Amino acid sequence: MTANKSQKTKSDIIWCLLLIGLPIVGIVAVNLLPNLREISDKFDNKSPANLDAKYRYHFSETLRNNPSQKEAFQQEIAFYQQRLAVDSKSGLNRAALAGVYLKMARATGEGGWFLLAEQAAQRSIADLPFDNKGALLVLARIAEARHDFPTALRFAKQVGFDNEDAIAISVTSHLAMGKVSEASIAADALVNRIPNLGSLTLRALVRESQGRD
Questions:
Q1: 96-107 pLDDT, tens per residue?
Q2: Nearest-CA neighbor of 13 among 209, 210, 155?
Q3: Which of 32, 5, 43, 18 is nearest to 183 (CA)?
């Protein structure tokens, strides 16, 4: 009983570190690491009341109040919707649309966009069941947003750990689960693949949880 309580406390501490550290990574990723920007959004203490509990996430007030960015997302959505009107079975276009829906969910804090992202990603995989990394990554990020880390890792594994986004999800999900050794291995792999400030910050977060400098 004591061991379980200690493990839970450790996991809670690690998750708090993620909430503090990931905004820093997010700033770096937007400017230096486009492939990682989806896993390092800023967090605050607000969740939309109309969002089902399992979908609740923390959203950036800056993004929510940025009409130019939301307008850009709306233009992307319209673009992919037009392409799908021509070819409704295009798994790649639907995966791209799912990705924009997910960005819009994070930008607005409206839970309906999360549901649209999940539905679009699932349909994309139905239309294109092989080599559909974009849709799998959307599902992984949604699972991570729900704190369903085992599912996030399962989708990331399907993408393959030669993909920077999948590796980054492996880092954050393992760390949130208290599996620091696995997170450290993934963080080292990410730094070896893309040794920039974004990946180094993630590795530093892992090392901090290990008590290392």
A1: 999 999 999 988
A2: 209
A3: 18
How much is the pTM? 0.69
CATH code of residue 123:
1.25.40.10
Q: Where in the sequence is the domain holding 166, given as residue range(s)?
A: 2-209
Quote the tokens at residue 38: 């989806």
Widest CA span of the chain, in angstroms?
60
Structure tokens at 162: 């030669």
Q: What total number of domains does the chain contain?
A: 1
Tokens of 114: 């999360």
Cα separation, 44 vs 133, in Å, equals 29
Question: 167-178: per-residue pLDDT in tens?
Answer: 999 999 999 999
Q: How far apart are the first and last CA of the chain?
A: 32
List the one residue out of 163, 173, 161, 160 whose CA is nearest residue 202. 173
SS3 96: helix
d(CA 46, CA 177): 23
